């Protein structure tokens, strides 16, 4: 998505509504501004961690087909046992 915006005399910019909506940027959100090479990159600081993890899980679904809830429980039990042995 690309838009043109104008910088005010005070250095202010207005993000277009359709861009704010697509990026889920709301009033009061804090944005991080970085200079990457010769580009200005603006991204939300308070992006939901749940959304981040959900995206990661969707992108990695199926890459470890042997991992299921039983396997995870076995790993947790083994880790708990090792922890108890060290205490």
From TrEMBL:
Annotated GO MF terms: DNA binding
InterPro entries: Repressor-like_regulatory, SpoVT-AbrB_dom, SpoVT-AbrB_sf
Alphabetical UniProt keywords: DNA-binding
Cleaved signal peptide residues: none
Residue intervals of the SpoVT-AbrB domain: 2-47
Protein name, entry field: Regulators of stationary/sporulation gene expression
Species for this entry: Moorella thermoacetica Y72
């Amino acid at each position: 998505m690309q838009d043109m915006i104008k910088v005010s005399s005070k250095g202010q910019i207005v993000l277009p509504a359709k861009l704010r909506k697509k990026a889920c940027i709301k009033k009061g959100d804090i944005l991080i501004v970085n200079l990457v090479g010769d580009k200005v990159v603006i991204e939300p600081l308070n992006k939901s961690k749940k959304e981040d993890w959900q995206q990661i899980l969707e992108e990695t679904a199926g890459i470890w087909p042997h991992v299921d809830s039983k396997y995870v429980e076995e790993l947790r039990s083994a880790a708990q046992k090792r922890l108890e042995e060290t205490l």
